Amino acid sequence: MSSVDMYLLSGVAVFAVCAYALVVHAHLVRKVIAINMMGSGVFVLLTAIARRGESIDPVPHAMVLTGIVVAVSATAFALAVVRKLHETTGSAYLPEEGEDAPPNSGGER
Amino acid sequence: MTGAFSSINWMLAPVLVPLAAATATFLLMGLRGRTRRMAQNAIGLAAAVGIAVSALALWAMVSGGGPVRYELGGWEAPLGINLYADGLSVFMLLTTAVVGAAGSVYTLGYFSGREGEDVRRREYFQDETGSFWPLWMFLWASMNGMFLAADAFNLYVTLEILGLSAAALIALGGTRMAFSAGMRYLMVSLLGSLAHLLGVALLYGSFGALDLATLGESASPIPPVWAALALISLGMALKTGLFPLHFWMPSAYTGAPSAASAMLAGLVGKASFYLLLRVWFDVFEGSVPPGAGQIFGVLGAVAIVWGAVMAMKQTRLKTLLAYSSVSQMGYLFLVFALVAGASPERGFEAWAGGIYLVLSHACAKAAMFMAAGVVIYSVGHDEIPRLHGIAQKLPLAVASFAVAGMTMMGLPTSGGFTAKWLLFSASLGTGQWWFGVVILLGGVLAAVYLLRFLNPALIQVRTAKVYRDAPRSMTVAAFGLSLFSLFLGLASAPMLDLLAVGGPFGGGS
Fold first, then answer.
1. Among all residues of chain B, which has the CA nearest to that of A85?
2. A3-94 maps to CATH 1.10.287.3510
3. Using a CB-CB distance cutoff of 8 angstroms, which residues of chain B are in contact with residue A19?
4. B447 is in which domain, residue-wise?
5. Complex ipTM, two decimals?
6. A56-86: pLDDT as tens digits
7. Which of B377, B354, B340, B394 is nearest to B259 (CA)?
């Protein structure tokens, strides 16, 4: 197995492990980190794809650069929402399904 | 050369106009109060007009001269960014133009900032920071960009802008519920687009191409392609809200301000469905493994029934509408089962039926959420048991709800009738009558859950208290859009002709 194959496989592995982490962890900061690293897994894969041929392919590099910009904005926005949620509810966890829509909120009359 | 020049302008306008408007309205956030609101409203409405004009111009161009391709800055693929418009792209542009224009008018009244009596309401009809317009314009630009994108990576970028601006719109209310709904949608949206990105990476690794047309030529049924297809399908099914991945929809559509709910339920889910159609029928037409479409079809059929049954149990108008969306999204996914192995005519019928439902459901569901927003504005809540006889006080809102409901039920002259008729006929034509049964059953169930609100709203004598009248721009936008959805069934011929331009299945008959 060449080193490029190693990177190809580890990119996919990072993606898979972090997708699992996103589902099982309830703490929102952990979820945000998991999403961020899922992106990194794809970037590793793309960089390895660029290295496969004799000459280095610039297109995946352009994709990774764009992807990093997107990942930075998405992570920043997600963290901002987590902080806001923490300010309003005092908790860094999402409420359970249905709990955030109380069936009878008569107090709002 | 002049022909090429004019085509360039019309191709760029649907993306550039809302992007420019988003930037301008964003900069105007520095102004205060009434001045800012007037300036942002003027820019937003001008952008809506500009998008509508450019979509109509593209309609004329594409139906006259076939699909159009434009290379940004003259750079060719793979390094350059290409725009591509065929019948499906223009159809989707027209859909967002119509629903978006109505939504923009609705917003004028929704965020008018007028204060009635001092009552605590479910929604705050104030946009203190002026952030609605920039977010909505970014959302619109991302959708139009997706419909015109010619390569798989640009689809990813537009998908991310779409998800981020939609999540921000959901959280705009600033309440506990709005933040948690926005956060949940953000997670779902990022997961969906990352799955798409991994799929794109696998495709690039296999074929060294990103351009959708090039990928379509080189795609072959090999394992990496199946993995890519599975990842993209999973991601988009999540973002469109296919059962059982619909869990985020009720909180997102309920937690958002109604002006945003209308656009989210009407348009945002449809954008990811568009991506799915592109990938399945333009890129992988020959390499989809047999039986894959059946998985979507069965899940769609379950969604139709499950969403409708859940909608019947809801006590809030907006959650009822959200579950109705779960049900209606199910119809869209029947397309994948009906097309598999069908003759070109039947295949086109099913494909066009699904896309026609995108348009009619976008108009109808947006109108219904707008009507729910009018109810909340006037009454202060949307709890169905406390809305007895509301039709006497808010006739236009209830009328919009009822008229748009015709599309949900699939009654004649509504766009929903045409769409569901096409799907029904394709299900019989391909010998899959059980999907036809579900299509009919879904219409009956829709009537049941809609009457759960309409019946007490129309008949009861003891009426709910109305605090203030909604601005006319809200009621007129809702009613206009619902009427539009009702008469869509009569205008189906030119729309189907448009879809046939550059469409799969050799354009049908």
1. B179
2. yes
3. 191
4. 290-509
5. 0.90
6. 888 899 999 999 999 999 999 999 999 999 9
7. B377
